[in-house]
Amino acid sequence: VEKVYIPQSMTDGGITNVYKVPSGEGEYTYNYAVEAETVEVFLGVMRSGKQSGNAFTVDVVVNDETSAAMAAKYGAEVMGADLYTLPESVSVDAGSNSKTFHLSLNKAALKEKAGKKLVLCVGLASPTKYELNEKASEVTVLVNVDALNL
Question: Residue 102 to residues 15, 69, 71: CA-CA distances in angstroms?
């Protein structure tokens, strides 16, 4: 059975569904791009299964309850709505099994959060086709502001 999920939720083997930004040391661990006014965190939608599939669209949602719980767990702050933008939905073309999207962070607002860790729980909902993989349809993005070197 094909399932829809966020591949970044599996970066630690699906144990915590935490996606650290930046993900590590070294130039090959960049999971974000610094633009003129934003920091673009790379996320994605993926459909499991080897068959080339039909087109589908899935909603992108924020889970405030999980964001708050994870912020408490990691000594972080929940990202305020002024800090980020997300697409409302993501469409995957027929014949493809994935599509990238960005959590776009306001660079000026991020700089004001120096010394902090910020958290936002991003999830998928209501796919037009296929089912969600319940364990991997939500990811907690944990941003270490200082490590971004803005």
Answer: 23, 23, 21
- The secondary structure of the chain in percent helix, strand, coil, rounded to multiples of 5, reads 20, 40, 40
Q: pLDDT at residue 13 above 90?
A: no
Give the torsion sign (CA, 98, 147, 138, 133): positive
User: Taking residues 117-145, what's their average pLDDT?
Assistant: 96
Alpha carbon distance 63, 74 (integer Å)? 16
The structure's pTM equals 0.93
DSSP per residue over 47-90, as a string?
E-SSS----EEEEEEE-HHHHHHHHHHHT-EEPPTTTEE--SEE
> What are 2's two structure tokens?
């094909």
Q: How far is residue 105's CA from residue 90's CA, in Å, rounded to a whole number?
A: 18
Q: How many CB atoms lie within 10 A of CB 78?
A: 19
